Amino acid sequence: MSDMTPQISIDQVWKVFGERPERALDDLCQSMDAEQLNARTGLKAAVRDVTLSISSGEIFVVMGLSGSGKSTLLRMINGLILPTGGEVSVDGKPITQLATGELQKLRSNKMAMVFQSFALFPQRTALENAAFGLEVAGVPRQKRLEKAREALERVGLGKDLDRLPQQLSGGMQQRVGLARALALDPPILLMDEAFSALDPLIRREMQEQLLELQAESPRTIVFISHDLDEAVRLGDRIALMKEGKVLQCGTPRELLCKPANEQVRHFFQDVDAASVITVDTVAESPARLINQSDLRQLQIEGDTAIEAPTCIVDDRNIFKGVLQKNGKIIPAETGPALIAETTIRDAMKSVANAPYPLPVIGSDQRLIGVISPRRLLRSMILR
């Protein structure tokens, strides 16, 4: 999870290709769309006035169709391409103001890149390929091989260290590419269509592995994709691009439920809403609620029989359990409850099988509301 500290800042960035590209920054040219600009000036604006802030520790997905400018934007983050206008900063340092040596140091110490093409040396083993970035960085042989071995073990290739690329499947080759990046232990990982060349099953496995690795050791990941399901599955936030511009940036739920315009709405129309919307957004106030201190008084009086299951909370609204109709209490520690971030898709089975509306609680254990099968179904119909 992100700590919301901006690590990468992209401020009014343009990237224009062609003769005298700075012409595109004139007020008149800025008012043109991509086709008009190209027709009148011969210039191609790959990125147009993009402003984004990427937080430390988040998976930030930039998505769009081919030609939307997403890969160009990624290459400006690590300085492979310099912006025509605007500024890209990493940890507060503007990329364009770095000397060549400083830029190389930034790439070596803070960034690693995973490409769509596996980019492995055919004559090198998986271990040697995974160690290549460390070799370029000047790390001694024994130390770099040790780090590469650890990285390969993390991606499930601990038994394939001595195999050559041609002896590995496509998914295994991409794991070597990922291990090569992880061996550098970079705080920033740049992934350009990293899983798009894989078949759907292997792609899904790689997505799951990336999420597992991120949970174990959070880092800032900028992930380029044209696959909507992939973006929704991986991204803490998504920036949707078209013709060099950002149409909208937000969480998957924000883009799905609150699209900025018809283009965004159309792009997300086929997304499985149940896999994006979380239960805290559809939970309703419990029909019956009792304070823990009031319950104690009822227990003293021997009168705990009720008409329907009732949620129990303390004075701070911390969920303590459910009082059943027969007067027995299911404590919060053992009773079923849903955390706020649970998606509707993941909650369906639990909600359907529960004998009462399931409590929905936040990370602080406070009761947010309850959700019943009827509420769950109604929320899906309305959306």
Top-tier CATH class of the largest domain:
Alpha Beta
User: How are strands sequenced across the largest beta sheet?
Assistant: 6-7-8-3-9-10
User: Domains counted in the coordinates: how many?
Assistant: 2
The value of Rg in angstroms is 26 Å
The helix/strand class is alpha/beta
Which outline best applies? Answer: globular
- The level of helicity is 25-40%
Per DSSP E runs of 2 or more residues, the count of β-strands stands at 17
What is the typical, i.e. mean, pLDDT? 88
Euclidean distance between termini CA atoms: 27 Å
What CATH architecture of the largest domain do you see? 3-Layer(aba) Sandwich
Largest sheet: 6 strands, mixed
Question: How many helical stretches?
Answer: 15
CATH topology of the largest domain: Rossmann fold
CATH homologous group name of the largest domain: P-loop containing nucleotide triphosphate hydrolases
Structure write-up:
The structure is a single chain. This protein is α/β, with parallel strands linked by helices and 383 residues long. It has two domains: 56-273, Rossmann fold (3-Layer(aba) Sandwich); 279-382, CBS-domain (Roll), CATH 3.10.580.10. The chain has 15 helices and 17 strands. The chain has helices spanning 27-30, 34-41, 70-77, 100-110, 126-130, 132-136, 141-154, 170-183, 200-216, 228-234, 252-257, 262-267, 292-301, 344-353, 373-382; strands at 6-17, 44-55, 59-63, 85-90, 93-94, 111-114, 188-192, 220-225, 237-242, 245-250, 289-291, 310-313, 319-323, 329-331, 338-339, 358-361, 367-371. Helix 7 (141-154) crosses helix 8.
